[in-house]
């Protein structure tokens, strides 16, 4: 009787050990994110934009939070006004002036997308806080970089002069951080805030830094615009002139008129 019990116990122990060995020998598959699913937008980024970078500075694509934020920014702008034929024409006109100035100051071409985020490439636009022009300079900052701003003259509205001032400002921001991505982020919120956000954990990596909401997505938005503007085969054609008042086509035509 005792022998039978011993045999039974031995078999049980052996089966338990074998089951444990089988479990530990299987591949440890981790979920794509904390919710346990793979975002279709993350897949979009991995399949189409993994080579996307800002000013030749790489993104940490192995971080799913980064890929998700980039995918969200691209999806948000994929079929909006940036893709209209009218906006494409405006962009190419203004880029023809901006790009040579950026090159003359040794600034990466990707900074030409800042006016799209700041002002939608509208030279006469003014913000409620007092910023004006395509580069959205505040009066004090504009004067600091050589622009005249008074009752009779506002150089912020001059494309060439404001771009030269923006280049001087961006060069100074780069000098503070020795990093173009951080210079772009600082263009949005200022050098002191970026400097304050740098710590031993993020080591000055913009994509790992804790920033305010606007600055935290600023470079992602620049990358999204770079991706969209750089895909001319997906341009939305101009809307027809005739449309019902208040309809979606009417709103779309109005957007085109604003961009033209």
SSE layout and pairings?
Elements: H1 2-25, H2 40-48, H3 64-77, H4 85-104, H5 114-119, H6 139-144, H7 159-177, H8 180-189, H9 191-197, H10 213-216, H11 218-229, H12 248-259
What this model shows, in words?
With 260 residues, the chain is an all-alpha fold. The protein has one domain (45-259): Lysozyme, CATH 1.10.530. It has helices at residues 2-25, 40-48, 64-77, 85-104, 114-119, 139-144, 159-177, 180-189, 191-197, 213-216, 218-229, 248-259. Helix 4 crosses helix 7 and helix 7 (159-177) crosses helix 8 (180-189). The longest helix is centred in the first third of the chain and has 24 residues, at 2-25. It is globular and about 50 Å long. The termini are far apart. Residues 22-47 and 234-260 have low confidence and may be disordered.
Count the DSSP helices: 12
Report the principal-axis shape.
Answer: globular
Q: Calculate the terminal CA-CA distance, rounded to whole Å.
A: 96 Å
Q: How confident overall, as mean pLDDT?
A: 78
Bin the helical content: 55-70%
Parts with pLDDT < 50 across at least 5 consecutive residues: 22-47, 234-260
- Which structural class is indicated by helix and strand composition? mainly alpha
